Structures are given as C-alpha cells and as structure tokens.
Amino acid sequence: MSVDKTDLQVSLKKYFGFSKFKGLQENVVKSILSGKHTFVIMPTGGGKSLCYQLPALMQEGTAIVVSPLIALMKNQVDAIRGVSNQEGIAHVLNSSLNKTEVKRVKEDIVSGVTKLLYVAPESLTKEENVDFLRSVKISFLAIDEAHCISEWGHDFRPEYRNLRSIIGRIGENIPIIGLTATATPKVQEDIIKNLGITGANTFKASFNRPNLYYEVRPKTKNVDADIIRFIKQNEGKSGIVYCLSRKRVEELAQVLQVNGINAVPYHAGLDAKTRSSHQDKFLMEDVDVVVATIAFGMGIDKPDVRFVIHHDIPKSIESYYQETGRAGRDGGEGHCLAYYSYKDIEKLEKFMSGKPVAEQEIGQALLQEMVAFAETSISRRKFILHYFGEEFDNETGEGGDMDDNVRNPKKQHEAEDEVKL
Ligand code: ADP
Ligand code: MG
Fold first, then answer.
1. What ipTM was reported for this prediction?
2. Where is the Helicase ATP-binding domain (predicted)?
C-alpha cells in the first residue's frame, strides 16, 4: 500500500488527534504500510503503540496484536474505541470471553469492521483460533513487548517462542512487526531469529534520557536515614522507592510514615483493592511516595515523578533503566538514586540458585553488568547507553553532565567505602 505524507498526517489527526509524529513513528508506519517485516526498538513512552495502530486503522483486514498483559490490551482497546467511537473497531480475544462474545468478535472480523485484534500468545495457540484466523484477511501481525521471546530479556515468556510457527499456520506472507523497549543487542538478535524476520526494516530510537540524573551511593546501615533525608530535601515531589522484598517494602513505608513522609506501600501481596487505592492516591497526589516492589510501575503513566530510589540494586541494567525511566516522563527533573552494596548482589545470587542452570547463567551475566555499573567510575549515562549499543559522548551529548561520576569524578575507587552518610 502506498500513501503519501499528507494521507498519513490526515489519518494521524483523524484517529489520534495528534498533529505531528513522534520520533521515528512516521518511518515505521510507512514501513508497515509497505508490507515489510519491521522491527521497532524504542524506549518506554516512545509511542510504539501508534506505530502499529495507525497502519492497522488505515488498511484493509485485521491486524493481530500479540501482547503479554490483559490489562494493557484492555487499555489500548478502550483508547482506540474511544477515538473512533466504534465498538467493533478493536477487540480482545481471550479465554475470559463467553460464547456470545466470541461470536460477536468473529462476526466483526469477518465483516471487516475490526481493524485491531489483541490476543495473548496462549489464545493464539488455540487450534480453533488458528483455524478461524486462517480464514480471514489479516493485514499484519504485531508482537508488542517482543523481548518476551528472549531468555536474555527481563520478562521471558516461553509461550512467545511458538509464535513463529503459529504465524506460519495463520498465513504465509503475513508481515511481522516486532516492538520492544529492550535495547540490548543480544535480545534484539533473539527476537529477529525467533520471529524469522532477518532483513526486517529496523528502527531504533536513542535510549538517552537527558533529563534524568543518575547517582549510586554506597549502601550502609544508615540507608533508611539517608533516604528520609533525600525525600525531605525533595518535599512535595512525587517519587517511587523500589525494594526487593515485600517485607522491606512494608517496613520502609512505615519508617517513612513515622518520619512524617506521606508514603504508601505497594506489592503483589496486598489485595487488589488496597493496591489500586494506593496507586490511585499516588496518581492523584494524595500521597507523595510509593514504596514498592517491581510489581509497581508497568503501564503507570504519571508524568511528573521527580525521583526513583532503588533501596536495593536491581537484577539487571534493563530493569534499572525501566524503573528509573519512570522518572521525569514530562521532560522535567528526575533524580535516580540507587544504593549499592555487594551483599545485595549475593542475596540476588541466592534467589537465583533454585533456578535451572541455563537461567542462572544468564541471570549471573546480567547481574555482573549491574555490578560493573554500580562500581564504575565512568559516566553512568555513557555506561548505560553503551550497554544498549549506543555510543555517547559526554562533551557533546545531551545530559552529558547529568550523573554523579561526571559531576564528582572519583579519584580512587576504594575511597567509596569510607564515605560517611
Ligand atoms: P510505548 O508503548 O512506546 O511505551 P505508548 O505507545 O504507550 O509508548 O505511547 C506513550 C504516550 O505517547 C501515549 O500517551 C501516547 O498517547 C503518546 N503519543 C504517541 N504518539 C504521539 C504523537 N505522535 N504525538 C503526541 N503524543 C503521542
Ligand atoms: Mg507499549
């Protein structure tokens, strides 16, 4: 399908109300419309959804979107229905639907109304769904969060491994679009290989977040007091404090409360009602700080988070990047402060020790990169971007002076242990 620039602009405005594409979106949309396999690597918040939603809406047939999280699929479907004012334009196909609902979805697809069909990978594997999808016109197949395919990603899901063969059964020449916010070369290779899309048009945005300030402090027994001091210096600002365990989340939230900080805990052990009430309070600014496990954050879009503190070091640089990435979404200030002690690394190693050997090896390698990051004396930003396969020049690059190692170069690495907090 060939379209000119004005068609794209008109459709962008019509379906989304935006007057400009963000970053590489326009080129990605063109690539998809031309029917080529396409691979998109953009940081979270980069605007990946629009990359496949717009061409889906512009083309004949139904685009299948594979996504790992039901909540995210529902959000997207609601958003698309909202802009188009047409219920059947987007559907989710999953095992929670009853017979009547499934029938309705299928009718909408057959009649050509449905432009986007969201499915979880396990629904796609079902024989009856494969048979049905073979019989209808599919515009392309998009795999969101495509890093789930790779054991080197932070969220490996075995059911993503079968996608390629299922796609082959649905149709022979279906264009495949992979999208991810994981930028490591290893994960990218895995995705390309597993989806069989060698030679795909690849679009990679920069992962630099110039407005974020990166800092690592040694973790001593006074870490809680240090965190309290930091938060008090940032009074009235919104922030997230990540801890490894639910227990630590509860304890720290209490310590903060006792010290007059408006904080709530968040972890998967809390009941759904408490979780959503705490999340809402944070979004509505009834509380300043959420103390959380990594269960908090996926799909949460609060633009003015001013700091992200890691009470415990994350298990990989990808996790660190994702979690710190929740700060400063609006382009304003975002302070990323991580506490590091080698003891915590040993704890993380212990967690892994029950896992299969292959998984442990990967986990170790990722963890060692994290250690290197925490202990490095070179620019944190340079380190992160290098890890993601990007060269960064602190002299000329945006945000070149926005980390502790650039602001206060370390003379001697050993001196770190002596720092008094
Ligand atoms: P990602 O999946 O890459 O994390 P999303 O697709 O969720 O990002 O988009 C992030 C935000 O950017 C959304 O709020 C979306 O509405 C907004 N957005 C996307 N494209 C544009 C655009 N062209 N102009 C303005 N806002 C955009
Ligand atoms: Mg997304």
1. 0.99
2. 29-201
